[in-house]
Design a protein that fits this description.
By secondary structure, this protein is mostly helical. It contains three helices and no strands. Helix 1 (2-31) runs antiparallel to helix 2 (35-55). It is elongated, with a radius of gyration of 15 Å. The protein binds zinc ion.
Length: 88
Amino acid sequence: MMGKIKNLMKLRKFSLLCLFLSIPSSFIGSILNITFLSITGVSLLIIFILISLIFWRCPHCKKALPIRFNIDEDIDDNYSCPYCNGKF
Ligand SMILES: [Zn+2]
């Protein structure tokens, strides 16, 4: 169970990384008209959305967690489920 939760947080961090990289790359790509960067940015955004939709669920009550996040609470490893208050 703990290993599963660690994986979830790793996956969450990876998806957030995709989000953070997707915004500047699609922005720069569209300004400088670099198709490669725009495509990379859009792909990263799609990866972020897919990971969030498929895997970003509470391990306790299995409800889908909000994609929106609080940077203070989300980056460390103690996220609380807004539905059942389970920490993971
Ligand atoms: Zn929960």
